[in-house]
Amino acid sequence: MNRDHVDVQQAALDEYHDDPGDLPVMRARFEHNGSPRYLLYTIKRFGFDRDHGFHLDVQLVSDALEDGIETVEAQLQEGHADLIDIDYISIARERAEGADIVAFHPYGRTVGGLVAPEDSDIDGLEDLSGKRIGVVRRLDKNWILTRAACREYHDFDPDETATPVEAGSKVELTRMIREGEVDAGFQFWQIIPEITETGPYENVLPVSELVQRLSETDNKLPIAAFLTSGDYLDDQTETVRAFADAYRDAVDKLVEDDEIWEEISEKLMTYDDPNVMRAVRDGWRDMVVRDWDEESVDGMYRLFDHLKSVAGAEALGVEEIPEGTFNTDP
Q1: Which of 132, 191, 320, 323 counts the most CB atoms within 10 A of its CB?
Q2: Buried (b) or exposed (e) across 108-142, using 16+ Cβ within 10 A?
Q3: Contact 13/6 with Cβ under 8 angstroms?
Q4: Are 32 and 61 in contact (CB under 8 A)?
Q5: Cα–Cα distance between 139 and 137 in angstroms, integer?
Q6: Are strands 224-229 and 101-108 parallel, antiparallel or unpaired?
Q7: Considering only CA atoms, which of 22, 61, 63, 26 is closest in space to residue 44?
Q8: Average pLDDT over residues 206-217
Q9: pLDDT of 79
Q10: Could you tell me the pTM of the whole model?
Q11: Contacts of 7 (CB under 8 A, 6+ apart)
């Protein structure tokens, strides 16, 4: 995505950035290529922040790494942001290292799926052995989750019985799938429609299904969550609650209204193919988690234990989820 397109997206958001006046401000800093921007645009487009008594200031930032952490994380930890989203393993890791951060609302099941040719003989977990399986990297959560599920339900580890092939990037993984260098590949959810809607490929194994099985809960389980600093949560508790309300309004809009997705496609996406846009829309609707409770958090702990048993605490970067990482009722 070039800089011009990032500027176009920011301009689309800025169209709805009016004067906050006396309203409390929440500074949201999100990656320019991340799916939360669809939700944030919807909040601004329909004024859901003002409806709930606050001003959401949205700025799109780089997804580059700085000193080993994502730029959005640096924005929060350096005091330049009040709201970001990352996966909950990263939240736990940063909190264990002393960061004053708290996850206060879910975002979604930000995992991917196994993309294979339509004529592939791979239909599920039990078919992975003996195959060349593309992954962005061996420590990618899609691969670790798959390994955990294979060990739990089929008594084998595909890291040993299959041949995982590291692509190094999402773009390179897509190329490897299309050129047949791998039998299948674990791609991220928002990229899968670019492959399956434009060629003879299908998502044969949605990793979200593994998330649900391993977490042992019927609640739709989030992998990514919204977080803020402990200080902001203490000082602006009502604003944090107001964001959660605005978030629910935006989720309802995006789940029920197809027309807003046409607008989002025009202003925030790079897809020219309406079939791809609709597939991204449907994928987002399946991915997003509207709310959570203590049962959800219990499932997140169970899922963490499965990942730790496969990858080890060193690979995850954290031995356990610290107390106070999640606040389901701020």
Answers
A1: 191
A2: bbbbbbbbbbeebebeebebbbebebbbbeeebbb
A3: no
A4: yes
A5: 5
A6: antiparallel
A7: 26
A8: 95
A9: 84
A10: 0.90
A11: none
Considering the domain architecture, whether residues 208 and 124 belong to the same structural domain is answered as yes
DSSP 97: T
- At 115 the pLDDT is 98
CA atoms within 13 A on the CB side of 54: 22
For the chain, helix (H) and strand (E) counts, in that order, are: 16, 12
Task: Name the nearest CA neighbour of 157 among 311, 329, 290.
Answer: 311
Determine the angle formed by the axes of helices 141-154 and 294-311, rounding to 10 degrees.
90
Q: Using one digit for the tens of pLDDT, what is the confidence trace for 226-261?
A: 999 999 999 999 999 999 999 999 999 999 999 999
CA angle 271, 83, 299 (to 5 degrees): 85
Alpha-carbon gap, residue 223 to 307, rounded angstroms: 12
**Which residue's entry shows tokens 């070039």?**
2
Number of domains in the chain: 2
- Strands (E) located in the chain: 25-31, 55-61, 65-66, 69-70, 84-87, 101-108, 112-117, 132-135, 163-166, 184-188, 201-206, 224-229
- Angstrom distance (rounded) from CA 298 to CA 282: 27
* Token pair of 66 as six digits: 């700085």
Give the residue from 183, 215, 247 where a domain finishes. 215
> Can you give the pLDDT at residue 315?
85
Contacts of 281 (CB under 8 A, 6+ apart): 258, 261
Burial class (CB in 10 A: 0-12, 13-18, 19+), 22: exposed
User: Based on the domain organization, do 228 and 85 belong to the same domain?
Assistant: yes
Give the pLDDT mean for 70-84: 81
Residue 45 belongs to domain with CATH number:
3.40.190.10
Last residue of a domain, one of 215, 244, 270: 215
**Nearest Cα to 284, choosing from 256, 323, 324, 315?**
256
